[in-house]
Design a protein that fits this description.
Blueprint (H helix, E strand, L loop, with lengths): L1 H15 L11 E5 L2 H11 L3 E5 L14 H8 L3 E4 L7 H8 L7 E3 L26 H18 L4 H26 L8 E4 L5 H7 L2 E5 L10 H14 L3 E5 L5 H10 L2 E6 L12 H16 L1
Parallel strand pairs: 1-2, 1-3, 3-4, 5-6, 5-7, 7-8
Bound molecules: zinc ion (ZN).
């Protein structure tokens, strides 16, 4: 029964065209929630995977609502990859809508060995943005590699080789981030962001997060919250407020005009962007360079 449904859906998908981002033809069909995870999967899988990100570039994963095309993409996937920890739980609803409960689902951020989770925006939740710490991103790569090997055992050796090269590059990237942050005077290593995406990055690389403009994407702060954030920015002499491409800059501009801090509007965290920010590695390099330029 289910396989018939999938066939019908797959046929309908061909008629409707691809979802969110264009998959390359052939290869193991992998559907994931964000362009960042899609890139990680491509780095390990290369031409043997056909990856679709449901949330398009510059889309907001926190408030995303799956459309019929996304349901079709999930229905035809052989492997589903999500973050978990509340970032992209809507995928579980999409999986039910696609009758794809039998498809393997990998949650990249949950139950990772040696990870110290930070609190999320609601009591009892955890912040889901682990991948912005490059060391934790390597754990994502390990999990992606294991899942690809399970789903496509015929290319297991190749996936392992690709993953080993990728891990080596991420080691080098981690070192570069540390070296760049070291050029910021310690007293200036603090920032304010639009949404709370950087706590793992900040903890790993020695930057203090003085405040966050919105508690959760899609929720505007109250006047009292804005006032207390302005006080915190002034008290800590924060030089720059960072906003992200997928969010409006109005609120951040208000904070800047009332505190004298500079707005840096082009930080990337949950989504890749246009060139040069087209890979996870480029995203980390870009963000680090923006931070260093604004804070040094
Ligand atoms: Zn986020």
């Amino acid at each position: 029964m289910r396989s018939l449904g999938v066939l019908v859906l797959a046929a309908a998908m061909t008629a409707c065209g691809p979802a969110a981002s264009e998959p390359s033809a052939g290869g193991l069909k992998v559907v994931t929630t964000t362009t960042v995870f899609a890139d990680m999967i491509r780095q390990v899988g290369g031409d043997y995977v056909d990856v679709t990100s449901l949330v398009p570039k510059n889309g907001d994963v926190h408030t995303f609502e799956a459309k019929p095309n996304d349901v079709l993409a999930v229905a035809s996937a052989k492997l589903l990859v999500m973050n978990g920890l509340g970032l992209d739980d809507w995928l579980e609803r999409t999986i039910r809508n696609a009758s794809a409960e039998g498809t393997p689902v990998v949650k990249l951020a949950e139950g990772l060995p040696g990870v110290q989770l930070l609190p999320g925006d609601e009591p009892g939740t955890q912040n889901p943005h682990l991948w912005l710490d490059v060391k934790y991103a390597q754990l994502y790569v390990d999990r992606i590699t294991a899942a690809l090997k399970r789903a496509d055992a015929g290319h297991a050796t190749w996936y392992e080789t690709q993953a080993a090269a990728y891990r080596t590059r991420l080691d080098a990237l981690d070192g570069e981030v540390r070296a760049k942050i070291a050029t910021i005077p310690p007293v200036d290593r603090k920032l304010v962001t639009f949404h709370d995406a950087l706590p793992y990055y900040a903890r790993e690389y020695g930057i203090a997060i003085v405040g966050v403009a919105v508690q959760a994407p899609g929720q505007d702060p109250s006047a009292a919250e804005i006032a207390s954030l302005i006080d915190a920015i002034k008290a800590a002499h924060v030089k720059a407020i960072f906003s992200e491409s997928q969010f409006p800059t109005r609120l951040v501009d208000q904070l800047a005009s009332e505190t004298g801090a500079t707005v840096v509007a082009g930080l990337y965290d949950d989504s890749l962007g246009d060139a040069p920010v087209t890979t996870y590695e480029a995203l980390i390099t870009w963000d680090t360079d923006q931070l260093v330029k604004a804070l040094r």
